Amino acid sequence: MQAVEKGQFPGCAYALRLRGELVQSGGLGHAALLPKRAPAGPHTIYDLASLTKPLCTALLCALLRERRELGLKARAAHFLPLLKGSAAGAATIAQLLTHTAGLPSWIPLYAHGRGPIQYQRRLATLQRESRDPSVARYSDLSYMVLGWVLEKVAGATLDRLFERLIARPLGLKATRFRPPPGWRQRCAASEIGCRYERRRVHELGLSDRGFPRGAVRGVVHDRNAAGLGGVAGHAGLFATAAEAALIAEQYLPRRSRLLRPETCRLFLRPWTRRAGQHWALAGELASCDDARQSPPLAPNAVGLVGFTGTSAWIEPMTEAVYVLLTNRHHPLYRTESFHPFRRRFHRAARLLQAPSSPRKFLFN
Questions:
Q1: What are the sequence ranges of the domains in the chain?
Q2: Please, which pLDDT band fits residue 357 given cuts at 50, 70 and 90?
Q3: pLDDT value at position 359?
């Protein structure tokens, strides 16, 4: 494929589900270039990065809401006493899900201590960056808080909740937090030394102690998630493209094995109303100004992208799920936009929906 040959990214894996059927999956290029080349394919496991948000955290929120264990109007401080009196503690579950809690998009919490207690103490000192509840500001911190809320409500760690309520019911075999050592050769490598984040930490005058030196492979790339042992509400999940697509399908009303149709519709409908900022409880809408990767998709498609080069989008009307997983920042961080390639992928994948389609993916 031209994109791989031109060095836009080492390799990728992709999956398309249509009306409850996996109609296409495959891989191209390499899962790792260093220390030696390893081919990418449907079996390759990727660090999903922020796809952890919709495929784990938001989905668990939907499941616990159905069980009447978690309400969308509940405030985080009700479950997390360390956040009482803070902007994070005052945020509702719905605000955290839709990035309207006014929290910063990112800060290196690990620079102030490790583990949930130290993280929460630091979060309790932060002020809202926007007082307008209609303003959506994408925030890793919001989903970290959601992860802790889920653990408190269910009385289990997030990785165990995911295994019990999502992975096991769906029969997933290659999706989990903290991949065991035996999975390492199947995992796509990420950026060497997390240099992009290290540079941001240096710009803040903070220490990069504990950062990896070599290529990150089989362990979470995100350093805030690493400071939580690799299990966090905003990042840390690993999966193959086909299994990520199956999880995403659980938001489709007529296809979900986990959620009731009314819950699926609730989590896919537009929630924020500010012009150009369109978010659902399950993710960003394709009509959002920032969703430049998705113009070929329907305006009400819902999805998200991840820093490592991942994306998952759901089209409710066509009952289609598009998943593209890459390790675009291996071996080093790339500054060029990845949106044009995502648009090409979605455009090619949509052709498979035509009744006369030969079901042969154009990227093969």
A1: 60-168
A2: low
A3: 55
CB 75 within 8 A of CB 91: yes
For the record, the structure tokens of 149 come out as 């809320």
Per-residue confidence (pLDDT) for residue 274, from 0 to 100:
78
The answer to whether the CB of 250 falls within 8 A of the CB of 282 is no
Sequence-distant (≥ 6) Cβ neighbours of residue 333 within 8 angstroms: 191, 195, 196
Burial of 240 (0-12, 13-18, 19+ CB in 10 A): buried
Q: What is the pLDDT of residues 138-155, one digit of tens each?
A: 999 999 999 999 999 999
Span of 10-19, 202-211, 219-228, 317-326 with lowest mean pLDDT: 202-211
How far, in whole angstroms, is CA 327 from its chain's centroid? 14
Question: What would the two tokens of residue 310 be?
Answer: 């991942």
DSSP per position, 24-70: EEEEEEEEE-SSS-EE--TT-BEE-GGGHIIIIIIHHHHHHHHTTS-
CA separation for the pair 250, 254 (Å, rounded): 9
Cα separation, 319 vs 333, in Å, equals 34
d(CA 10, CA 188): 10
pTM over 0.90? The answer is yes
- Please state, as a whole number, how many other Cβ atoms lie within 10 Å of the Cβ of residue 131: 9
Architecture in CATH for domain 60-168: 3-Layer(aba) Sandwich (3.40)
pLDDT of residue 291: 62
Query: 10 Å Cβ neighbour count for 260?
Result: 12
